[in-house]
Amino acid sequence: MTEYWYNVKTHEIEEDAMSDWTQLIGPYKTREEAEHALEKVKARNETWDAQDDD
User: Fold this and answer.
1) pTM for this structure?
2) If you average pLDDT over every residue of the chain, what do you get?
3) How far apart are CA 37 and CA 25, in angstroms?
4) Which residues contact 4 (CB under 8 A, 6 or more apart)?
5) What is the 8-class DSSP label of residue 36?
């Protein structure tokens, strides 16, 4: 099964992790999920920051 990765350096979606793992976020099951990787990261960071404030 194909996995999709978001490359933080090139801002492109990769199939089956072609770049170094330090540049990738994932894996995701679909290309669409990978396209929204940065949004998910931002939302998680905001949640964690809010928990730290409590």
Assistant:
1) 0.81
2) 93
3) 7
4) 13, 14, 15, 26, 27, 28, 29, 30, 31, 33, 34
5) T
